[in-house]
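To close the section, here is one more complete example, presented without commentary so you can practise reading it yourself. The ligand is S-adenosylmethionine.
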Amino acid sequence: MASDSVALAERLLELAKSLQVSAAAAITAESVNGGSGAPSSAQAAHDAKHLIAETCDALMRSVLGPLEYTVLLAESCQESSALYFITSLGVADVIGEDTVSIADLSSKLNVQPRFLSIALSCLLPRGYFEEVGGFGSQVYRNNTLSRILRAEDPQTLKDAIGFVGDEGFKATSYLREAAVARPTAGADAEAKPVPAVNLAYGFEESVFAWMAKPEHPWRGQRMGKAMQQLHRMANGGVISDFPWASLASPVVDVGGGIGSLELALTKAGANGDVKFTIFDIPETIGNAKKTWAAQPAAMQEQVSFVPGNFLAPTLEETKLPQGKPTYLIRHVLHDWTDEQVVEILKNLAICPHHQHAAVGP
Ligand SMILES: C[S@@+](CC[C@H](N)C(=O)[O-])C[C@H]1O[C@@H](n2cnc3c(N)ncnc32)[C@H](O)[C@@H]1O
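Output:
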């Protein structure tokens, strides 16, 4: 083992110890502040965790060397595909609280056992599922990691994995084609690149309009749930590190999706008396309303909904609520080209009398 591997391993140990300290401090701050107020040591714990992950990766590069490390990276698509395959089939759901053999899984899911066996063997070394009775028994049980692949688990990532493994994965495999593609017509052909996801699935509209189409309503619904599941991971810090209750109300959440931020805020009571207006395309607003209809009445009273299009040709046509005191935009701008981002921001800038809260990309 190279000497820099030892140095990295020592650094890792130091970081792991400091993470323990910041995690303990974050728990103390949480209990003192009641989960709201000034930025806490939750941020320090978050930073330490990510530094540890980076250091682990540096250690792997150092131990494996350039060849093995690069092959590992190139082949990681197989594990991603296995995770998507096993999750979208519902393997963890079928196993539930039982132990299930590969033969039973195969007949319940109507897929060839060989495919199941290969995909599961990609995930087992990563810690997903337990092979009961040891290696090769082909009888499986859920464990802490595989449980979050179940639809009913409170921490489920099933829709997030579906969205990333389907639209996300297929789009990324068209990056090269997207980089050289040019729109066939139009004076602004240079200005508007064709997104990889359009090439992958062969549609022309925006990905959100396409996902919301009536021929596959499940795509739009899955994306809504995926956002909720992905953001749940990050929401903890967002809720406690920003003084939400001090914002001027109502807050218009532009491209707010099904309101996953508001679900987390209102559940935690972190918004005080502040009310929210969720603005999104009509189909997403439909999904948002369904989600909120299942929440307690006290939470429902804190949100309202406006369907629209922040890229419509005129401000009036966008249907953006005008003259509200606060506009919030989170995890939206990264989906658009620079030119479109300028359009969206211009539309927000000309809504009079407001303050802005930009969260995330
Ligand atoms: C990545 S999601 C983020 C959702 C939400 N802000 C959150 O943090 O959970 C992007 C959102 O932008 C919405 N969106 C896309 N095009 C839009 C448009 N033209 N007008 C309004 N919203 C749009 C999508 O429907 C989707 O809900």
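Once you have examined the tokens, check your reading against these statements. The chain has four domains: 1-74, 90-156, 161-204, 230-359. The domain at 230-359 is CATH 3.40.50.150 (Rossmann fold).
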